[in-house]
Amino acid sequence: MITGTFLDEISHDIPSANWDREAWTRDFAAMRAFGIDTVVLIRAGYQDRCTFDSAVLRGRYGYLIVQQDLVALFLELCEQFGLKFFFGTYDSGRHWTAGEHQAEIDVNLAFTEEFFARYGQSPALAGWYISHEIDAFDDGVMRVYESLARHLRGLKRVPILISPYIRGAKQFGSTISLEQHEHEWDRVFARIEGLVDIVAFQDGQVEYAKLPDFLALNAGLARKHGLVSWSNVESFDRDVHIKFPPIAWPKLRYKMDAARSAGVDKLITFEFSHFLSPNSMFPSAKGLHALYMQWKRELESRNA
Fold first, then answer.
1. 105 phi, psi to nearest 5 deg
2. What pTM does this model have?
3. Residue 228: beta bridge partners?
4. Residue 117 class from Cβ within 10 Å (0-12 exposed, 13-18 middle, 19+ buried)?
5. DSSP structure class, residue 248
């Protein structure tokens, strides 16, 4: 079963739900009924946008695009519905992709300290998410991971999660070989072993025929280096021309089955509210939710 979801309201490429407190409360109730026990804020800020009124970012830009304190709301709703909350870091959208890794580290050190001073006492805070996504070994990003992981552990010693991706044909035109992927991620995991606790590879970029082999390899590499292996089961569809509708139910089932066969420890998704929720702006998400819940009830009845 899918038991975790990202929360995406500071997005690169999907629209905002424009929900108020009442709408978010409805959706957290739907998450709980769905079987979700963990939510991950995919990024607390991106460029000049933020999920709370950050003095750090306001000083950086002179202004800030923020409307409601989503971090306070999400923590409150997690406490209300008994969910674990992973806080996602800041993505400058500039420094780390331009090779300015120390600048990315510095703004995140100040930003996460600000977050922790304001919200760190919440009992729902159960993990950290380093939001910088990579598909291969990158020495500069390794320094970002190392610096942020040590800093976050100093603020609160809870699990640290990353969600990288596989360099696949659906995004890049061709798929990296298994051998090269293994080489790259053996190096990554060797570097961050003991600093990062959980890895949840995104599963949407690779052709379905190749996906089971990559999932099995990822799970094996994680175990080798002492990391917990989750799978980020994308609930949006990369195979159609529009970006991005809810995925077809048979595809979601296939990816979930492949992840279970690979022996991962937990299935999470990107992401419930847009693509799997009965409250989604996409009508087909309601159908996907209904099919999933019907399947879940059938499984539970069979196992009773």
1. -65, -50
2. 0.97
3. 198
4. exposed
5. P
User: What is the chain's alpha carbon radius of gyration, rounded to the nearest angstrom?
Assistant: 19
pLDDT of residue 63: 95
Quote the Cα angle for 58-62-67, to 5°.
50
Tokens of 179: 């051998």
In angstroms, how far is CA 125 from the centroid of its own chain?
15
Q: Choose among 188, 70, 79, 84: nearest CA to 129.
A: 84
Q: What is the pLDDT of residue 13?
A: 83
In the chain, the amino acid numbered 51 is: T
Peptide bond into 74 cis (omega under 30): no
Residue closest to 138 by CA, chosen among 73, 188, 65: 188
CA distance 129 to 44: 10
State the CB neighbour count (10 A cutoff) for residue 152: 23
- DSSP assignment, residue 293? H
Pairing of strands 45-46, 49-50: antiparallel
Task: List per-block mean pLDDT (blocks of 10 residues) for the chain, which spans 304 residues.
Answer: 94 88 98 98 96 96 94 98 98 94 98 98 98 97 98 98 97 96 98 97 97 98 98 96 94 97 97 98 97 96 88
Q: Residue written as tokens 């929900």? A: 19
Task: Decide if 188 contacts 135 (C-beta within 8 A).
Answer: no
Give whole-number Cα distances, 155 to 91, 194, 196, 204, in Å.
Answer: 19, 17, 15, 33
CA–CA separation, 158 and 58 (whole Å): 28
Q: Please state, as a whole number, how many other Cβ atoms lie within 10 Å of the Cβ of residue 240.
A: 11
